[in-house]
Specification:
This protein is elongated. The protein folds into 3 domains: 55 residues, 434 Repressor (Amino-terminal Domain); 132 residues, Response regulator (Rossmann fold, 3-Layer(aba) Sandwich); 166 residues, Rossmann fold. 45% of the residues lie in helices and 15% in strands. The protein is an alpha/beta fold.
Length: 385
């Protein structure tokens, strides 16, 4: 097709997009989006130039087009890894309840920890005219990975479960915030509970200090241990040779089983375990039972999350409780409420600790062994002096 100089190469039969406007003015699509939404981040002179071009090109944002075509879609999208993990299924229920209060519908899609599938799921949500998206993302840094044009051409906002990536100085208007929990504080409370019961050798599983979750959990436990003597944090990680034979949610249970068997190989064996979620806790207890061990008689277990499975399992789990209902309400509010500068930030909820049947004082033999090690250490210190 021969280019029309008046349209700068844009097919007059095709609706102009933000990319077309940005290309003609040699600016980013985000600048176009901000200007059309009257953001103070764009100068008045540039706003007027962009608006004039948008008017000449007949540009109409998708969100406005939907309104002209018959009002709101009343649809929110939720992107989750899977529904088999208790935390995600419970969050989906809570988000549904919060959305219903505003007469909104939810559409859920699952990415199974596949980044390509996650991005295509978000694109699909936007194509279904979702007015906002809540993402429990598999992306380490979604701000760098997601294509900005997925959002700026629709005006649909998104919020993420998790912490805001380090080094993020400016977040675009379509990102309404990151919602998370004070993981370090929760781990500290879990460790303090176990230490007060008499445990001194505590395992963390899974332990991956390369991740933010693993690092913050380790730091929280170590902070609690500062007030006690003869303590040890024992990391339990997957062996480098581990390769999952399954995919999706099942691979989570397979990894949990491998971690539990790694724990059973420890010598001496820790008397308590802190797990990052109740899925790993339940898999761990199942493996312990098959090895002839019981919770909490042989090993105490603490998890994080406080889902229904934590409360009503055969052995109710002591846990770091997250205010999941408040978290769900906040996430819905972020993608449905008015845009504010303060929305584009990290929203950190504080946990509380709940003691249940999965924790108790360590076995007598372990307490004696711990006291003997401490006495031996004191004797050696006196000899050196």
């Amino acid at each position: 097709m021969k280019k029309n100089s008046r349209n700068n190469g844009v097919d007059p039969q095709r609706r102009s997009t933000l990319s077309d406007l940005a290309k003609e003015l040699k600016v980013d699509t985000s600048t176009i989006s901000l200007a059309l939404r009257d953001s103070p981040k764009v100068s008045q002179a540039r706003k007027e130039k962009i608006r004039a071009l948008a008017q000449r090109r007949g540009y109409v944002p998708n969100a406005h087009a939907r309104a002209l075509a018959g009002g709101r879609s009343a649809l929110l999208g939720v992107i989750l890894p899977c529904s088999a993990i208790p935390f995600y299924s419970m969050m989906l229920d809570l988000l549904y309840a919060q959305a219903a209060k505003q007469s909104l519908r939810l559409e859920a899609q699952f990415h199974q920890w596949d980044q390509g599938l996650e991005i295509s799921s978000i694109r699909s949500m936007l194509e279904h005219q979702a007015e906002g998206i809540i993402a429990f993302s598999s992306l380490e840094d979604p701000l760098r990975t997601l294509n900005e044009e997925l959002f700026v051409d629709t005006g649909a906002p998104i919020c993420f479960w998790g912490r805001q990536p380090d080094g993020t100085s400016e977040v675009m208007d379509y990102v309404r915030g990151f919602v998370t929990v004070n993981v370090r504080k929760g781990a500290q409370m879990a460790a303090e509970h176990l230490l007060a019961l008499g445990h001194r050798r505590i395992a963390l599983m899974p332990c991956d200090r390369r991740t933010w979750l693993g690092k913050e959990t380790s730091l929280g436990i170590l902070e609690a241990m500062k007030s006690y003597s003869s303590t040890q944090l024992v990391p339990v990680s997957l062996p480098e040779s581990f390769s999952s034979k399954t995919e999706g949610a099942e691979s989570t249970f397979e990894r949990g089983e491998c971690l539990a068997r790694q724990f059973l190989r420890l010598n001496p064996m820790p008397t308590a375990v802190v797990t990052t979620d109740d899925t790993n806790a339940h898999v761990f207890m199942s493996v312990l039972q098959s090895a002839g061990m019981r919770v909490p008689e042989n090993v105490s277990v603490v998890c994080s999350g406080n889902t229904y499975y934590s409360r009503y399992g055969a052995v109710p789990l002591s846990c770091v409780s997250m205010p999941l209902d408040l978290i769900a309400a906040k996430m819905i509010a972020l993608v449905t409420g008015p845009t504010k500068e303060t929305d584009h930030r990290e929203h950190i909820f504080q946990p509380e600790f709940i003691s249940r049947a999965s924790t108790a004082a360590p076995p007598v033999a372990a307490r004696i062994s711990s006291r003997q090690r401490q006495e031996g250490s004191s004797a050696r210190a006196r000899e050196i002096a």
